[in-house]
Fold:
Amino acid sequence: MNREQPHVVILPEDDRNRQLANGFQLQLNWDRQRWMRVLPVAGGWSYVLPGLSTLQMDHWPQRFAVLLIDFDNQFTARLQTLKAQIPPHLGDRVFILGALDDPEALKKALKKPYEDIGSAMAEDCRQQTNTTWGHPSLQHNVAELERLRQRVVPILF
Structure:
């Protein structure tokens, strides 16, 4: 990854979110895969923000970060808590996405492995559709997804 060029890092809360991110990355063509890196799991939603501080966002102005968390049916409160802690100058480069409950509920509802769900999410981004993102367990991400589609999707697709 050339850190001087626009690129995306994904910080997953846990292994299930990591698998979703890996599935997303598998849908990128080989040249574009190098513009995205899935980082090791943070170990819980409350650890993604400390993990963000290690990404040197100020040092790498072309870096975008996706914090991939479980909202545990506390979408508004958790999103507000995390956004309040993101430095204002980084707000347009940090995105917070995740399942409304947890990825396990999403996996059961869609009857697909995590990586297949992540691949379907990437295909929605590529095609500008909401087939998977429109699922009740993901549709709460609409505002963040729109920001992501404007800023990050052109880098990856």
